[in-house]
Design goal:
alpha+beta; M1 Pyruvate Kinase, Domain 3; three-stranded antiparallel beta sheet; Pyrv_Knase-like_insert_dom_sf; MoCF_Sase_C; catalytic activity
Length: 181
């Protein structure tokens, strides 16, 4: 596997679509990104809180591969790190191909476990008209393909910054493909 790195880190205290880039973010075990609106043991995503506020928060950290931004740029969409609401922007690791339960070591100390795929909603088209079709499509078999990153929970906390390395540890077989969370 090529050298995988963090290219940007982002957080926001408010529930807004995009998150401003930071020089560092701190992950807190079992909670998420310190100071971020999605921090918590139970679900913080507003539509999910409305359904059931006691659900476990499987979306503590949102990761997107910067290769998606390259693809979107080629399709005519200017999208930068943090614009799609992710906390961690990566390069050099195929996040979407990893199985559920993959552990990612981020920087020196932090470890997150991938819980599933982000399921982008219509808010993405409010950000850029037509963008939803670029990040959710169908494969040759007609199955839905979600490309807007993965969600994770924090197993071990730590401080993250751009340039930090990423290493992946796959779970035991059999691997379960990522599903939306």
């Amino acid at each position: 596997m090529s050298h995988a790195t963090i290219t940007a880190v982002s957080s926001d205290t408010d529930h807004r679509f995009s998150k401003p880039n930071r020089t560092t973010v701190r992950l807190l075990a079992g909670l998420g990104v310190e100071g971020d609106a999605h921090l918590g043991v139970t679900v913080q995503h507003l539509s999910r809180v409305a359904q059931d506020p006691t659900q476990p928060n499987l979306r503590q950290v949102h990761l997107i591969h910067s290769e998606l931004f390259d693809e979107l740029r080629e399709a005519g969409y200017a999208v930068a790190p943090g614009d799609l609401g992710e906390n961690v922007t990566t390069r050099g690791i195929d996040l979407l191909a990893l199985p559920t339960g993959t552990r990612l070591r981020l920087g020196a100390d932090a470890v997150v476990e991938i819980t599933g795929l982000r399921n982008p909603c219509l808010q993405i088209d409010r950000f850029r008209t037509g963008l939803l079709k670029q990040v959710v499509g169908r494969d040759a078999a007609g199955d839905v393909v979600r490309k807007a990153g993965v969600m994770a929970v924090v197993l071990s906390g730590g401080t993250l910054r751009p340039g930090d390395p990423i290493t992946a540890e796959l779970p035991a077989l059999p691997h379960r493909p990522l599903e939306r969370v």
